[in-house]
Amino acid sequence: MDELKIYEFRPLFLTLDRIGPFRNVHEIDFTDSKHHPCNFYMVVSANGMGKTTALEIFSCLMNLLGKKEISTYGHEDLDKKDGRAQLDFWVRLHWQGRDMSIVLSVLAGRIGEEVFLKPWTDELLTMHNAENWHRVGFRSPVPGRYEAIMSRKDELLLDLSSTIRASLENAHEEHFLQPGFHLPTALYFSAYRDIPGISDDNNGNGRNISQPSHWNYRPLYAFDAHSTLWRDSLDNLVIWLKWLENGSFEAAQKLIDEQVFVDTPKRLKGVRKVPPEALVDAGDGEIHRLDRLSSGEKSLAHLFLRIGAHGTANTIILIDEIDAHLHIRWQHRLYNALEKLAEDHPGFTVIMTTHSTEILRRFTTSMNIEKESLYLGGDLIEQQELI
To answer: Rg of the Cα trace of the chain?
Structure first.
């Protein structure tokens, strides 16, 4: 039998209810006016209205893929309260000898036996060019109790789940870094994207070549503010990529040089052995560490090193507040880099939030300009009436 292979994995809708500020049902539509899944998407709202919550719930649901059982969703409103959520994907794949397109819904929370936040009718499936609707996830009839939703008779989902679990257990370093690795992943970046110095002495005590904390294939990687521990550091990641000697470091080097240091003399030079750390060539004869970059360069280096190391052929990039701590010039540089990333990588989807009026103005202007490889969309979260 042919192996299951995913060609495209795109978000369609995120539906939230009784979660954070979303006291009523709120749906985020990730498609454009022609029902095509967007690959460049902006979520906008005032502070406290739910932008970050939406990205957090997206991450929680993505993390359920491949799970047989769970002990937590990872969000208080799902785990301890009455919150419920549904995340719908459009998936084009090869299975049992033929190509097909389906809608895959991932559910979590206080979901009833037959109640879905967004039921997919035959009409809706046809509208979105999908043959069938498949459901997976967990329901909680009471807080703290988790019951799998996936039907035992759904052979496609059983194959997908077993394929994901096999990759979680068996993926080698060089496996998922290859461009052809097809399983989906989401990379969630919080608004805090600093690169702090590493907590050890100048002799490098405690720095060994070791597998980074974030490694191998996962359906979700959530990158919060970096700790100062060696195993969590970007320097350890770069050293590890260099040590693998499989082209991973060179790929990351190329991405950083093209996206972060473009139009500057700076380059990611290589690594130092004692103490082990990544080196940046400033172009004026000075060589320095990653944590000596400017705040704007750190933010971009954090993003693109992680994307280069952990992305698969089907990657969803979630970035909270792309403008955070960035001068307007750096905001535009990051916007340019993300737009190019979506254009250059057909399986990538970029979903971001912003408070920047400049970036929002640029994004809304871009929505009126058709580009062959970019599908833009956005959601404005407004005040909901309390129930």
So the answer is: 21
Average pLDDT for residues 30-37, to the nearest whole number?
94
The residue behind tokens 């693109």 is 304
Q: How many CB atoms lie within 10 A of CB 212?
A: 20
Has this prediction a pTM greater than 0.85? yes
d(CA 182, CA 5): 7
Distance CA 101, CA 104 (A): 10
Among 108, 112, 130, 109, which Cα is nearest to 121's?
130
Whether residue 216 contacts residue 207, with contact meaning beta carbons closer than 8 Å, is answered with no
Contact present, 205 and 176 (Cβ < 8 Å): no
Contact yes or no for 102/89 (Cβ under 8 A) = no
Does residue 260 sit in helix, strand or coil? coil
Statement: residue 172 has pLDDT above 60: no
Q: Where are the domains of the chain?
A: 5-183+319-380, 194-218+226-311
